[in-house]
Amino acid sequence: MTNSSPVSGNAYEYLDSAGPEEQRRLEAVRRYRLVDQPVEDAYDRIAFVAGAIFDAPIATVSLVEQDRVWLAACQGLTGVREVGKEPGLCASVIAQDDVYVINNAAVDPRTLEHPLVRGELGLRFYAAAPIRTHDGYRLGTVNVIDNRPREVTERQLTALEHLASMVSDELELRLMVIRSAAAEQRMRESVH
Description:
Number of helices: 5
Distance between the termini: 56 Å
Shape: elongated
Number of strands: 7
Structural class: alpha+beta
Low-confidence stretches: 1-16
Largest sheet: 7 strands, mixed
Strand content: 15-25%
Helix content: 25-40%
Mean pLDDT: 86
């Protein structure tokens, strides 16, 4: 269920290319119109629950954009709404289907040089589940972060996957509202 293999030489190729598949993924991110919007309660509650399940001080719901990671919700970091994409933990998660876990970032070869590990935050633990759309695009993550190493249970990881699915469901509801509003606007315009 977890990805524990070291980073290969081209693990961050998503940073250098925005090929057709990445363009379609970015279009999927943008169709939900959540980036650059105020925090919505549904996503904030999901981040809170993720943090509670793991007893982690930081939990987020993130969307990976072309050049940044937008935090649709963030528990434990005041005033942070986006972070740079590279070298990206969230962006690494969306490159795969499984839950991504780093038990101790200080010794994990995937994260030894990561700025969140080496910097002030002192990230040591990270677990994330990809948010997948109903048509198969991985948009971002539900993740938890701690500044101390830790182990997790399969039950916790399954719960994280369920929370990511709940975000996906919320996004689909959001899309239905967006499409309904657009259809209503078109009807109004055709009447006049």
